[in-house]
Amino acid sequence: MAQAATDRDSYGVLVGWTHHPMGSKLDLRLQCVQSTRGLQRDEVDSHHVVMTREQAAVLANYLFEVTQRHPPRKRGLLSRWFGN
């Protein structure tokens, strides 16, 4: 996926995100700043990405893979009761 940067590319630091259901789709809102100075001046840009739930699952799996992390496991009832 490595490609040359274009004039349409924008780089920043991710500082937050939220999502809102839209029927069968999701609105993923990414909040970014261009620099740490922008964060201090409250210059947060919001980018909305509308995707299907399947696309969101593929994105989540991709992020787990590239970060070499695992999704959080669900704890069973006994584990929750006894703190294991």
Question: What would you note in describing this structure?
Answer:
It contains three helices and three strands. The protein has helices spanning 36-40, 53-66, 77-82, and strands at 13-22, 25-33, 45-52. The chain has a three-stranded antiparallel sheet with strand order 1-2-3. A hairpin with a 2-residue loop joins strand 1 and strand 2 (25-33).
How many β-strand runs? 3
Which class best fits the helix and strand makeup?
A: alpha+beta
Low-confidence region ranges: none
The strands making up the biggest β-sheet line up spatially as 1-2-3
Number of helices: 3
Q: Total domains, how many?
A: 1
Order of helices and strands: EEHEHH
- Main beta-sheet annotation: 3 strands, antiparallel
- Fraction of helical residues: 25-40%
Label the overall shape. Answer: extended
Rounded mean pLDDT is 85
Please indicate the percent range of residues in DSSP E strands (runs of 2 or more): 25-35%
Query: How many angstroms does the end-to-end distance come to?
Result: 41 Å
Rg, alpha carbons: 17 Å
